[in-house]
Structures are given as structure tokens and as C-alpha cells.
């Protein structure tokens, strides 16, 4: 594995002849990043032997925009939260690659490089990821006209621990995190949860995600607050879930309990469970010819989110 500069991976924000470029990266915050403090923490990027990219120690969160081909955008946007156990971000296979597939549907995509819990750089590591997800929703809504988006059609997608973050943002938006949340709504229009970490209870938890976010000795109240299946209400956005039955990293029951909570509260939900596929399969579950992105396209279409 080799380390590379993050600037070598992310495109800088650009404007070309007065138009938004096909891909651009911009900071999540102007000025001071909330829930941050000076530290020696420095962002690192590792390129794996297979070409995959893993980012850790995020200090300056940002969004990378992926725009559909000219004339094909339908006004729907998805903010993507890559997974990595709240210790790193699988920014390519659960970020950039997925964004490009969404572009093929006419959906504008934004890959969120969110901060990972860190006691050195954050006064309260248990809220930093949520602050970033909510700010991403605000920022995309603020720039909806620039990207020709419908501000009521901006959703969140998350993989693994990123799925926990997306579900967290999708169930606890009524009281936004932080001291000065701002006027824009932080309720996603919909959720797409890919083999998500949902629950922090002892029987379903992904130990690394819970430990990284809350420490090794969370209180019962914290476990309940961060168990997203217990936070579903009738206002939770429509949800699409995908998981594999043989997932040994994040038990499939994480998706099932969230789906059941949606049923109890009358939240429209669609779930696709594969018998095999394990964890972290990204775009393609190699054990089946079925493409979950085809199922997602159908779901988007059925809800009117592919209509211009």
C-alpha cells in the first residue's frame, strides 16, 4: 500500500466557461469547522494494491459533486456517505463509483468526506459525523439552483457505518446537532441504506463502529439514542435497504429491524436481501447477476424521483 496526497485524488473546485464542471470538490464549511480544535491530526489517504482508496483522519470535510451528462439531470440528488467503521472511508467503491452509476440515472451525486470520530481533533467525537451530514444537506439545498436541483428531492445514501450515519441523519433531524444549526431543513427526502450498521445494542452492533463513535463503555441511554431502529417515527423518510444474509461483519438483522420499524410507523420502505454477498460489496454483489442499482432505479422511478 502507498500513501498519496489527498489533492491527488480529489479534484479542486472549478468553474469552466461559467458552467459547473462535471466534477468538483468544495469545503463543507466556510471558516471554523464546528466541533473541532487544533491538533496534530493530519488526513491520510492510502491506495490499496487493487487500486482502492481509503481515507482516514479527516479534518476538513468536503463534498465532491458528480453531475449527470448535459441535458439528462432530473433534479434529484443523492449525498453518499461511504463506509469504513467510523475509522476510515472507502471513498472510491462506496463513493465515487456509486456516484457515477447514479449519474447514469440522471441523478446528481455528492460524495461526502465526513469527519471520523477523533478525540484529539474534536471536543465531542460522538456528534462530528452527524454535524457533517446535516451540513451537507444544508449546503446542497443552498446550492440547489446552481445544480438545477429540486430541494425537496435531496436524499442520503450510506454504506455500512455510512449507513448508520445516513439512518442517524434520517431519524434525528427534528433537533439538528450543533449550537447554530441554520434555517435549512436537514431532513433527507429519502434514505438508501446499503448493508447498514443500524443498531448499537449488544446483539446487533458492529463493535468497531460503536467503539469508535461512543467509546468502549457507552451508557444505556447512548446505546438507545444511537440505535436508529429505535428512533424511527412517522416522519422518517421513505427508505430503500440492501443487505446480504451471510454478512458476518454487520448482521443482516440490522436492516431487518429498521425495515420493521418503518412498517410499524407507516414509513414506505423497500428491502432487498441476498442470500450471499458478504459485506462491503459496493456496486456489484458478485454472487448474483441481479444489480441492486436496477432495483434502486425502479424505486426512484416509482416515487417520481426520475421525472424532470
UniProtKB/TrEMBL annotation:
Domain BD-FAE-like, first and last residues per copy:
66-260
Q: Which UniProt keywords apply?
A: Hydrolase, Signal
Question: Is Ubl conjugation one of the keywords UniProt gives this record?
Answer: no
GO molecular function list: hydrolase activity
Q: Which InterPro entries match?
A: AB_hydrolase_fold (IPR029058), BD-FAE-like_dom (IPR049492), GDXG_lipolytic_enzyme (IPR050300)
Q: Signal sequence: where? A: 1-22
Q: What Pfam families does UniProt report for this protein, alphabetically? A: BD-FAE
Protein name per its UniProtKB record: Alpha/beta hydrolase
Q: Species name for this entry? A: Hymenobacter mellowenesis
Q: What is the lineage of its organism?
A: Bacteria, Pseudomonadati, Bacteroidota, Cytophagia, Cytophagales
